[in-house]
Amino acid sequence: MDVDISIRVDGDTHRLSVDTRTTVLDTLRERLGITSPKKGCDHGQCGACTVLLNGRRVNSCLLLAVAHDGAEIVTAAGLAVDGQMHPMQRSFIEHDAFQCGYCTPGQIVSAVAMLGEAAAGWPSFATPAGEQPATPDSGGMRDDEIRERMSGNLCRCAAYANIVPAIREVAEA
Amino acid sequence: MRPFRYARAENVAGAVALLARSPEGAFLGAGTNLVDLMKLEVLTPDLLVDVRQLTSDAVEELPDGGVRIGAAVPNSDLAAHPLIRRRYPLLSEAILAGASGQLRNMATTGGNLLQRTRCPYWQNITTPCNKREPGSGCSAIDGFNRDMAILGSSPQCVATHPSDMAVALTALDAIVRTEGPSGERTIPLAQLHRLPGNEPQRDTILQHGELITAVDVPPLPYAVRSRYRKVRDRASYAFALVSVAAAIDVQDGVVRDLRIALGGVAHKPWRATIAEQALRGQPADPDQFWAAASAEVAEARPLTHNAFKVPLARNTIVETLLNLTGISG
Protein backbone atom coordinates (compact mmCIF):
# COMPACT_ATOMS: atom_id res chain seq x y z
CA MET A 1 0.00 0.00 0.00
CA ASP A 2 1.47 3.35 -1.10
CA VAL A 3 0.53 6.62 0.55
CA ASP A 4 1.33 10.21 -0.49
CA ILE A 5 3.17 12.21 2.14
CA SER A 6 4.94 15.51 2.47
CA ILE A 7 7.91 16.05 4.78
CA ARG A 8 10.16 19.01 5.34
CA VAL A 9 13.84 18.11 5.71
CA ASP A 10 16.50 20.66 6.59
CA GLY A 11 14.26 23.41 5.25
CA ASP A 12 13.19 21.78 1.98
CA THR A 13 9.72 20.33 1.41
CA HIS A 14 9.49 16.94 -0.30
CA ARG A 15 6.33 15.32 -1.62
CA LEU A 16 6.48 11.64 -2.41
CA SER A 17 4.58 8.39 -2.34
CA VAL A 18 5.84 5.79 0.13
CA ASP A 19 5.07 2.15 0.88
CA THR A 20 3.50 2.03 4.36
CA ARG A 21 6.48 -0.09 5.49
CA THR A 22 9.04 2.63 4.74
CA THR A 23 10.71 4.21 7.75
CA VAL A 24 11.62 7.88 7.93
CA LEU A 25 15.28 6.80 7.85
CA ASP A 26 14.84 4.85 4.61
CA THR A 27 12.77 7.69 3.15
CA LEU A 28 15.60 10.12 3.85
CA ARG A 29 18.43 7.91 2.67
CA GLU A 30 16.97 5.79 -0.12
CA ARG A 31 14.25 8.03 -1.55
CA LEU A 32 15.60 11.53 -0.98
CA GLY A 33 19.37 10.90 -1.01
CA ILE A 34 19.81 12.62 2.36
CA THR A 35 22.50 10.41 3.86
CA SER A 36 23.69 12.19 7.01
CA PRO A 37 21.41 10.05 9.22
CA LYS A 38 23.09 6.63 9.26
CA LYS A 39 21.60 3.13 9.46
CA GLY A 40 23.40 1.28 12.22
CA CYS A 41 21.26 -1.33 13.96
CA ASP A 42 17.91 -0.37 12.35
CA HIS A 43 16.25 -1.38 15.66
CA GLY A 44 16.37 1.82 17.70
CA GLN A 45 19.32 0.72 19.77
CA CYS A 46 22.39 2.54 18.40
CA GLY A 47 21.28 6.14 17.75
CA ALA A 48 23.14 6.52 14.43
CA CYS A 49 19.84 7.49 12.74
CA THR A 50 19.02 10.26 15.24
CA VAL A 51 17.24 13.28 13.73
CA LEU A 52 15.12 16.10 15.13
CA LEU A 53 11.42 15.44 14.53
CA ASN A 54 9.41 18.59 15.14
CA GLY A 55 12.30 19.75 17.33
CA ARG A 56 12.85 16.57 19.35
CA ARG A 57 15.58 13.99 18.94
CA VAL A 58 14.22 10.60 17.85
CA ASN A 59 15.38 7.36 16.21
CA SER A 60 14.29 7.75 12.59
CA CYS A 61 14.64 4.00 11.96
CA LEU A 62 11.58 3.33 14.16
CA LEU A 63 9.33 5.96 12.61
CA LEU A 64 6.97 4.93 9.83
CA ALA A 65 7.02 7.71 7.25
CA VAL A 66 3.30 7.33 6.65
CA ALA A 67 2.63 8.24 10.28
CA HIS A 68 4.68 11.45 10.01
CA ASP A 69 3.08 13.19 7.06
CA GLY A 70 3.79 16.92 7.40
CA ALA A 71 6.69 16.45 9.82
CA GLU A 72 9.58 18.88 10.13
CA ILE A 73 12.88 17.02 10.22
CA VAL A 74 16.38 18.33 10.86
CA THR A 75 19.41 16.12 10.19
CA ALA A 76 23.02 16.73 11.20
CA ALA A 77 23.61 18.27 7.77
CA GLY A 78 20.81 20.73 8.45
CA LEU A 79 22.39 22.03 11.66
CA ALA A 80 24.85 24.14 9.66
CA VAL A 81 23.58 27.64 8.94
CA ASP A 82 24.68 29.55 5.81
CA GLY A 83 27.57 27.14 5.35
CA GLN A 84 28.79 27.77 8.90
CA MET A 85 29.19 24.67 11.02
CA HIS A 86 27.12 24.37 14.17
CA PRO A 87 29.26 24.87 17.31
CA MET A 88 28.71 21.20 18.15
CA GLN A 89 30.04 20.11 14.76
CA ARG A 90 33.10 22.33 15.22
CA SER A 91 33.67 21.04 18.73
CA PHE A 92 33.57 17.40 17.55
CA ILE A 93 36.27 18.22 15.00
CA GLU A 94 38.40 20.18 17.46
CA HIS A 95 38.21 17.40 20.06
CA ASP A 96 38.76 14.62 17.52
CA ALA A 97 35.52 13.14 18.87
CA PHE A 98 35.25 10.32 16.32
CA GLN A 99 37.27 7.66 14.59
CA CYS A 100 35.31 6.02 11.77
CA GLY A 101 32.68 8.78 11.90
CA TYR A 102 29.67 6.57 11.24
CA CYS A 103 27.87 7.38 14.51
CA THR A 104 28.92 11.05 14.43
CA PRO A 105 25.90 12.68 12.72
CA GLY A 106 23.60 10.92 15.20
CA GLN A 107 25.87 11.89 18.11
CA ILE A 108 25.87 15.55 17.05
CA VAL A 109 22.10 15.82 16.54
CA SER A 110 21.54 14.04 19.83
CA ALA A 111 24.01 16.28 21.68
CA VAL A 112 22.42 19.48 20.36
CA ALA A 113 18.95 18.29 21.36
CA MET A 114 20.17 16.98 24.71
CA LEU A 115 21.54 20.40 25.69
CA GLY A 116 18.16 21.87 24.81
CA GLU A 117 16.40 19.29 26.99
CA ALA A 118 18.68 20.10 29.93
CA ALA A 119 18.20 23.84 29.41
CA ALA A 120 14.44 23.26 29.51
CA GLY A 121 14.86 21.75 32.97
CA TRP A 122 14.32 18.12 32.03
CA PRO A 123 15.98 15.90 34.63
CA SER A 124 17.97 12.78 33.79
CA PHE A 125 18.60 9.60 35.73
CA ALA A 126 21.92 11.18 36.79
CA THR A 127 20.25 14.30 38.18
CA PRO A 128 20.38 14.16 42.00
CA ALA A 129 16.93 13.69 43.52
CA GLY A 130 15.13 16.95 44.20
CA GLU A 131 17.64 19.02 42.24
CA GLN A 132 17.24 20.87 39.00
CA PRO A 133 19.50 19.46 36.30
CA ALA A 134 22.70 21.30 35.58
CA THR A 135 22.32 23.33 32.42
CA PRO A 136 24.53 25.33 30.11
CA ASP A 137 23.21 28.41 31.96
CA SER A 138 23.99 27.08 35.42
CA GLY A 139 27.66 26.50 34.90
CA GLY A 140 27.84 23.55 32.55
CA MET A 141 27.15 19.86 32.94
CA ARG A 142 28.91 17.13 34.83
CA ASP A 143 30.36 14.33 32.74
CA ASP A 144 27.99 11.78 34.30
CA GLU A 145 25.02 13.89 33.21
CA ILE A 146 26.39 14.07 29.67
CA ARG A 147 27.06 10.33 29.57
CA GLU A 148 23.61 9.45 30.92
CA ARG A 149 21.82 11.78 28.51
CA MET A 150 23.87 10.51 25.57
CA SER A 151 23.47 6.80 26.38
CA GLY A 152 21.21 6.28 23.36
CA ASN A 153 24.13 6.96 21.01
CA LEU A 154 26.64 4.16 20.76
CA CYS A 155 30.13 4.56 19.33
CA ARG A 156 31.74 1.21 18.57
CA CYS A 157 35.12 2.90 18.03
CA ALA A 158 34.62 4.01 21.67
CA ALA A 159 35.45 7.65 21.00
CA TYR A 160 33.50 8.53 24.13
CA ALA A 161 36.64 9.85 25.81
CA ASN A 162 36.62 12.72 23.29
CA ILE A 163 32.87 12.94 22.68
CA VAL A 164 32.16 13.89 26.30
CA PRO A 165 34.68 16.81 26.35
CA ALA A 166 33.42 17.96 22.94
CA ILE A 167 29.89 18.21 24.29
CA ARG A 168 31.03 19.66 27.61
CA GLU A 169 32.79 22.50 25.83
CA VAL A 170 29.61 23.48 23.97
CA ALA A 171 27.61 23.14 27.19
CA GLU A 172 29.97 25.57 28.90
CA ALA A 173 30.15 28.03 26.02
CA MET B 1 8.29 -6.36 6.97
CA ARG B 2 4.95 -7.81 5.87
CA PRO B 3 2.59 -5.49 3.95
CA PHE B 4 -0.05 -3.70 5.98
CA ARG B 5 -2.66 -1.03 5.52
CA TYR B 6 -2.44 2.22 7.47
CA ALA B 7 -5.50 4.06 8.74
CA ARG B 8 -6.41 7.03 10.88
CA ALA B 9 -9.67 7.70 12.64
CA GLU B 10 -11.47 10.88 13.65
CA ASN B 11 -11.63 9.89 17.29
CA VAL B 12 -11.13 7.03 19.75
CA ALA B 13 -14.53 5.48 18.98
CA GLY B 14 -13.69 5.44 15.28
CA ALA B 15 -10.31 3.82 15.92
CA VAL B 16 -11.88 1.19 18.15
CA ALA B 17 -14.51 0.42 15.51
CA LEU B 18 -11.85 0.12 12.79
CA LEU B 19 -9.78 -2.32 14.79
CA ALA B 20 -12.76 -4.32 16.03
CA ARG B 21 -13.48 -5.15 12.36
CA SER B 22 -9.87 -6.25 11.74
CA PRO B 23 -8.90 -9.24 13.89
CA GLU B 24 -5.28 -9.09 12.65
CA GLY B 25 -4.93 -5.32 13.03
CA ALA B 26 -3.14 -3.35 15.74
CA PHE B 27 -3.12 0.15 17.19
CA LEU B 28 -0.04 2.23 16.38
CA GLY B 29 1.17 4.63 19.06
CA ALA B 30 4.74 5.87 18.69
CA GLY B 31 5.71 2.44 17.34
CA THR B 32 9.04 2.23 19.19
CA ASN B 33 8.38 -1.42 20.05
CA LEU B 34 5.73 -2.40 17.49
CA VAL B 35 7.67 -1.24 14.41
CA ASP B 36 10.75 -3.06 15.64
CA LEU B 37 8.77 -6.28 16.16
CA MET B 38 7.23 -5.88 12.69
CA LYS B 39 10.70 -5.61 11.17
CA LEU B 40 11.57 -8.87 12.93
CA GLU B 41 8.24 -10.34 11.73
CA VAL B 42 7.46 -11.31 15.30
CA LEU B 43 4.28 -9.30 14.83
CA THR B 44 2.59 -9.19 11.42
CA PRO B 45 -0.52 -6.98 11.65
CA ASP B 46 -2.37 -6.41 8.37
CA LEU B 47 -3.67 -3.02 9.50
CA LEU B 48 -2.24 -0.27 11.70
CA VAL B 49 -4.71 2.20 13.16
CA ASP B 50 -2.74 5.30 14.17
CA VAL B 51 -3.98 6.50 17.56
CA ARG B 52 -1.16 8.87 18.47
CA GLN B 53 -3.26 11.98 17.88
CA LEU B 54 -6.46 10.61 19.41
CA THR B 55 -5.88 10.54 23.15
CA SER B 56 -4.79 13.32 25.49
CA ASP B 57 -1.15 14.33 25.68
CA ALA B 58 -1.70 16.29 28.90
CA VAL B 59 -1.00 15.64 32.57
CA GLU B 60 -3.88 17.01 34.63
CA GLU B 61 -4.50 17.41 38.33
CA LEU B 62 -7.60 15.54 39.58
CA PRO B 63 -9.94 17.00 42.24
CA ASP B 64 -8.94 14.27 44.74
CA GLY B 65 -5.29 15.30 44.57
CA GLY B 66 -4.35 12.61 42.08
CA VAL B 67 -3.11 13.03 38.54
CA ARG B 68 -4.53 11.95 35.17
CA ILE B 69 -1.99 11.12 32.49
CA GLY B 70 -3.23 11.10 28.90
CA ALA B 71 -2.29 7.94 27.01
CA ALA B 72 -0.40 9.99 24.40
CA VAL B 73 1.83 11.81 26.91
CA PRO B 74 5.41 11.11 25.81
CA ASN B 75 7.61 9.43 28.41
CA SER B 76 9.98 12.45 28.36
CA ASP B 77 7.20 14.89 29.20
CA LEU B 78 5.85 12.70 31.97
CA ALA B 79 9.25 12.30 33.62
CA ALA B 80 9.89 16.06 33.47
CA HIS B 81 6.43 17.16 34.57
CA PRO B 82 6.58 19.26 37.78
CA LEU B 83 3.53 17.52 39.32
CA ILE B 84 5.07 14.10 38.77
CA ARG B 85 8.52 15.11 40.00
CA ARG B 86 7.06 16.69 43.14
CA ARG B 87 4.36 14.16 44.08
CA TYR B 88 5.62 10.90 42.60
CA PRO B 89 9.41 11.09 42.23
CA LEU B 90 9.61 7.29 41.90
CA LEU B 91 7.59 7.55 38.65
CA SER B 92 9.88 10.20 37.19
CA GLU B 93 12.94 8.16 38.22
CA ALA B 94 11.51 4.95 36.75
CA ILE B 95 10.87 6.55 33.36
CA LEU B 96 14.32 8.15 33.29
CA ALA B 97 15.86 4.78 34.17
CA GLY B 98 14.44 3.28 30.99
CA ALA B 99 15.39 3.43 27.31
CA SER B 100 17.24 6.47 25.86
CA GLY B 101 16.47 10.15 25.41
CA GLN B 102 15.44 9.52 21.81
CA LEU B 103 13.09 6.66 22.67
CA ARG B 104 11.52 8.51 25.61
CA ASN B 105 10.80 11.45 23.29
CA MET B 106 8.75 9.13 21.08
CA ALA B 107 7.25 6.53 23.42
CA THR B 108 3.79 7.15 24.86
CA THR B 109 2.32 6.36 28.26
CA GLY B 110 -0.19 3.86 26.86
CA GLY B 111 2.39 2.24 24.61
CA ASN B 112 4.91 1.91 27.42
CA LEU B 113 2.42 -0.18 29.41
CA LEU B 114 1.73 -2.41 26.40
CA GLN B 115 5.32 -2.95 25.26
CA ARG B 116 6.24 -6.59 24.80
CA THR B 117 8.82 -8.71 26.56
CA ARG B 118 12.42 -8.51 25.40
CA CYS B 119 12.86 -12.30 25.78
CA PRO B 120 15.33 -13.08 22.95
CA TYR B 121 13.45 -16.26 22.03
CA TRP B 122 10.17 -14.35 21.61
CA GLN B 123 12.01 -11.87 19.38
CA ASN B 124 13.56 -14.60 17.22
CA ILE B 125 11.08 -16.23 14.83
CA THR B 126 13.34 -19.23 14.26
CA THR B 127 13.03 -20.49 17.86
CA PRO B 128 10.01 -22.12 19.52
CA CYS B 129 8.07 -19.76 21.81
CA ASN B 130 4.68 -20.33 23.40
CA LYS B 131 4.04 -16.59 23.57
CA ARG B 132 4.61 -16.12 19.84
CA GLU B 133 3.35 -19.50 18.67
CA PRO B 134 1.22 -21.20 21.34
CA GLY B 135 2.07 -24.85 21.78
CA SER B 136 5.50 -24.64 20.13
CA GLY B 137 7.39 -24.82 23.44
CA CYS B 138 9.51 -22.48 25.55
CA SER B 139 13.12 -22.08 24.41
CA ALA B 140 14.03 -19.99 27.43
CA ILE B 141 13.30 -22.49 30.22
CA ASP B 142 16.25 -24.68 29.25
CA GLY B 143 18.04 -21.99 27.24
CA PHE B 144 19.94 -18.87 28.22
CA ASN B 145 17.60 -17.72 30.95
CA ARG B 146 19.65 -15.26 32.98
CA ASP B 147 17.20 -12.41 32.33
CA MET B 148 14.04 -14.45 32.87
CA ALA B 149 11.37 -14.48 35.59
CA ILE B 150 11.77 -15.90 39.09
CA LEU B 151 8.22 -15.26 40.29
CA GLY B 152 4.83 -16.20 38.85
CA SER B 153 6.15 -17.98 35.79
CA SER B 154 4.65 -21.13 34.30
CA PRO B 155 6.05 -24.19 32.51
CA GLN B 156 4.84 -22.43 29.34
CA CYS B 157 6.62 -19.08 29.70
CA VAL B 158 9.29 -17.45 31.86
CA ALA B 159 9.42 -14.06 30.12
CA THR B 160 9.55 -10.80 32.08
CA HIS B 161 7.70 -7.53 31.56
CA PRO B 162 10.25 -4.93 30.47
CA SER B 163 8.69 -1.62 31.56
CA ASP B 164 10.18 0.47 34.36
CA MET B 165 7.34 3.00 34.29
CA ALA B 166 4.74 0.28 34.86
CA VAL B 167 6.54 -0.87 38.01
CA ALA B 168 6.34 2.60 39.55
CA LEU B 169 2.69 2.97 38.48
CA THR B 170 1.89 -0.43 40.01
CA ALA B 171 3.36 0.69 43.33
CA LEU B 172 1.17 3.80 43.07
CA ASP B 173 -2.07 1.79 42.54
CA ALA B 174 -2.61 3.46 39.18
CA ILE B 175 -5.91 2.97 37.33
CA VAL B 176 -5.94 2.40 33.59
CA ARG B 177 -8.84 3.95 31.65
CA THR B 178 -9.80 2.22 28.41
CA GLU B 179 -12.32 2.47 25.60
CA GLY B 180 -13.14 -0.63 23.61
CA PRO B 181 -15.81 -2.47 21.64
CA SER B 182 -17.73 -3.03 24.89
CA GLY B 183 -17.49 0.61 25.99
CA GLU B 184 -15.35 2.36 28.56
CA ARG B 185 -13.93 0.79 31.70
CA THR B 186 -11.29 1.29 34.37
CA ILE B 187 -8.77 -1.40 35.27
CA PRO B 188 -6.42 -1.34 38.27
CA LEU B 189 -2.94 -1.49 36.72
CA ALA B 190 -2.09 -4.44 38.95
CA GLN B 191 -4.78 -6.39 37.05
CA LEU B 192 -3.96 -5.18 33.54
CA HIS B 193 -1.06 -7.55 32.91
CA ARG B 194 -1.43 -11.32 33.28
CA LEU B 195 0.78 -14.04 34.58
CA PRO B 196 1.56 -16.44 31.71
CA GLY B 197 -0.27 -19.55 32.96
CA ASN B 198 -1.44 -21.63 30.01
CA GLU B 199 -1.97 -18.59 27.75
CA PRO B 200 1.39 -16.81 27.58
CA GLN B 201 0.35 -15.28 24.25
CA ARG B 202 -1.92 -12.93 26.21
CA ASP B 203 0.10 -10.22 27.98
CA THR B 204 -2.92 -8.30 29.28
CA ILE B 205 -6.63 -8.65 29.93
CA LEU B 206 -7.46 -6.07 27.23
CA GLN B 207 -9.87 -7.16 24.50
CA HIS B 208 -8.90 -6.82 20.85
CA GLY B 209 -9.67 -3.24 19.91
CA GLU B 210 -9.59 -1.91 23.47
CA LEU B 211 -7.51 1.25 23.69
CA ILE B 212 -5.86 2.76 26.77
CA THR B 213 -6.99 6.40 26.89
CA ALA B 214 -5.48 7.58 30.20
CA VAL B 215 -3.84 6.49 33.43
CA ASP B 216 -5.02 7.88 36.77
CA VAL B 217 -2.62 8.03 39.69
CA PRO B 218 -4.38 8.34 43.06
CA PRO B 219 -3.02 10.70 45.71
CA LEU B 220 -0.32 9.25 47.98
CA PRO B 221 1.08 12.06 50.14
CA TYR B 222 4.01 10.08 51.50
CA ALA B 223 5.22 9.29 47.97
CA VAL B 224 6.92 12.71 47.96
CA ARG B 225 9.78 10.63 49.33
CA SER B 226 9.86 7.59 47.09
CA ARG B 227 12.39 5.84 44.97
CA TYR B 228 12.96 3.68 41.91
CA ARG B 229 16.08 1.58 42.28
CA LYS B 230 17.17 -0.27 39.13
CA VAL B 231 19.93 -2.86 39.01
CA ARG B 232 21.25 -3.57 35.52
CA ASP B 233 24.32 -4.74 33.63
CA ARG B 234 25.19 -1.23 32.37
CA ALA B 235 24.89 2.12 34.14
CA SER B 236 22.42 3.31 31.51
CA TYR B 237 20.29 2.09 28.61
CA ALA B 238 19.77 -1.50 29.79
CA PHE B 239 16.75 -3.44 30.97
CA ALA B 240 16.43 -4.25 34.66
CA LEU B 241 17.84 -7.42 36.15
CA VAL B 242 15.82 -6.41 39.19
CA SER B 243 14.17 -3.11 40.03
CA VAL B 244 12.32 -1.85 43.09
CA ALA B 245 9.76 0.97 43.23
CA ALA B 246 9.04 1.92 46.82
CA ALA B 247 7.44 4.51 49.07
CA ILE B 248 7.19 4.18 52.84
CA ASP B 249 5.43 6.14 55.56
CA VAL B 250 7.18 5.85 58.92
CA GLN B 251 5.90 7.65 61.98
CA ASP B 252 7.46 7.31 65.44
CA GLY B 253 9.57 4.44 64.19
CA VAL B 254 6.58 2.43 63.00
CA VAL B 255 5.71 1.60 59.38
CA ARG B 256 2.26 3.13 58.88
CA ASP B 257 1.98 2.25 55.23
CA LEU B 258 4.21 1.34 52.31
CA ARG B 259 4.26 0.40 48.65
CA ILE B 260 6.72 -1.93 46.99
CA ALA B 261 6.71 -3.19 43.41
CA LEU B 262 9.38 -5.18 41.59
CA GLY B 263 10.49 -5.17 37.97
CA GLY B 264 12.55 -7.71 36.02
CA VAL B 265 11.29 -10.65 38.06
CA ALA B 266 7.93 -11.63 36.54
CA HIS B 267 5.62 -11.62 33.51
CA LYS B 268 4.03 -8.49 34.97
CA PRO B 269 5.04 -5.66 37.28
CA TRP B 270 5.18 -7.51 40.62
CA ARG B 271 3.44 -5.88 43.56
CA ALA B 272 5.24 -7.10 46.69
CA THR B 273 2.10 -7.61 48.74
CA ILE B 274 3.72 -10.19 51.04
CA ALA B 275 6.48 -7.79 52.07
CA GLU B 276 4.02 -4.92 52.40
CA GLN B 277 1.74 -6.91 54.71
CA ALA B 278 4.67 -8.14 56.76
CA LEU B 279 5.89 -4.59 57.41
CA ARG B 280 2.67 -2.63 57.91
CA GLY B 281 2.43 -1.68 61.60
CA GLN B 282 5.87 -3.08 62.40
CA PRO B 283 8.98 -1.25 63.62
CA ALA B 284 10.98 0.29 60.79
CA ASP B 285 14.29 -1.47 61.25
CA PRO B 286 16.74 -3.44 59.12
CA ASP B 287 15.78 -6.82 60.58
CA GLN B 288 12.10 -6.29 59.76
CA PHE B 289 12.98 -5.11 56.25
CA TRP B 290 15.16 -8.19 55.75
CA ALA B 291 12.48 -10.58 57.00
CA ALA B 292 9.78 -8.98 54.84
CA ALA B 293 11.94 -8.97 51.70
CA SER B 294 12.94 -12.60 52.33
CA ALA B 295 9.26 -13.56 52.67
CA GLU B 296 8.48 -11.87 49.36
CA VAL B 297 10.99 -13.97 47.43
CA ALA B 298 10.41 -17.19 49.38
CA GLU B 299 8.23 -18.55 46.56
CA ALA B 300 10.76 -17.70 43.84
CA ARG B 301 11.51 -20.48 41.36
CA PRO B 302 14.74 -19.53 39.66
CA LEU B 303 16.07 -21.19 36.51
CA THR B 304 19.56 -22.41 35.60
CA HIS B 305 21.11 -18.96 35.11
CA ASN B 306 19.07 -16.55 37.19
CA ALA B 307 19.23 -17.78 40.80
CA PHE B 308 21.20 -14.59 41.51
CA LYS B 309 18.00 -12.61 41.07
CA VAL B 310 16.53 -14.03 44.30
CA PRO B 311 19.06 -12.49 46.73
CA LEU B 312 19.36 -9.49 44.39
CA ALA B 313 15.64 -8.77 44.66
CA ARG B 314 15.69 -9.29 48.44
CA ASN B 315 18.73 -7.06 48.95
CA THR B 316 17.46 -4.35 46.63
CA ILE B 317 14.17 -4.17 48.53
CA VAL B 318 16.07 -3.84 51.83
CA GLU B 319 18.52 -1.28 50.45
CA THR B 320 15.71 0.83 48.99
CA LEU B 321 13.74 0.84 52.26
CA LEU B 322 16.85 1.69 54.26
CA ASN B 323 17.61 4.53 51.90
CA LEU B 324 14.06 5.89 52.05
CA THR B 325 13.88 5.74 55.85
CA GLY B 326 17.40 7.06 56.40
CA ILE B 327 18.24 4.04 58.53
CA SER B 328 21.75 2.70 58.09
CA GLY B 329 21.91 -1.04 57.61
UniProtKB/TrEMBL annotation, chain A:
Pfam families, per the entry: Fer2, Fer2_2
Name the record gives this protein: Aldehyde dehydrogenase iron-sulfur subunit
Keyword Transport: no
Region Disordered, residue ranges: 125-144
Family annotation (InterPro entries): 2Fe-2S-bd, 2Fe-2S-bd_dom_sf, 2Fe-2S_ferredoxin-like_sf, 2Fe-2S_ferredoxin-type, 2Fe2S_fd_BS, Aldehyde_Oxdr_Iron-Sulfur, Beta-grasp_dom_sf
2Fe-2S ferredoxin-type domain ranges (all copies): 3-79
Keyword Iron attributed: yes
Key words, A-Z: Iron, Metal-binding, Oxidoreductase
Spans traversing the lipid bilayer: none
SUPFAM superfamilies associated with the record: 2Fe-2S ferredoxin-like, CO dehydrogenase ISP C-domain like
From TrEMBL, chain B:
Signal peptide positions (record): none
InterPro entries reported for this sequence: CO_DH_flav_C, CO_DH_flav_C_dom_sf, Diverse_Substr_Oxidored, FAD-bd_PCMH, FAD-bd_PCMH-like_sf, FAD-bd_PCMH_sub1, FAD-bd_PCMH_sub2, Mopterin_DH_FAD-bd
Segments forming domain FAD-binding PCMH-type: 1-222
Alphabetized SUPFAM superfamilies for the sequence: CO dehydrogenase flavoprotein C-terminal domain-like, FAD-binding/transporter-associated domain-like
Keyword list, A-Z: Oxidoreductase
Domain of life: Bacteria
Gene3D superfamilies cross-referenced by the UniProt entry: 3.30.465.10, CO dehydrogenase flavoprotein, C-terminal domain, Uridine Diphospho-n-acetylenolpyruvylglucosamine Reductase, domain 2
Protein's name in the database: Oxidoreductase
Source organism (scientific name): Plantactinospora endophytica
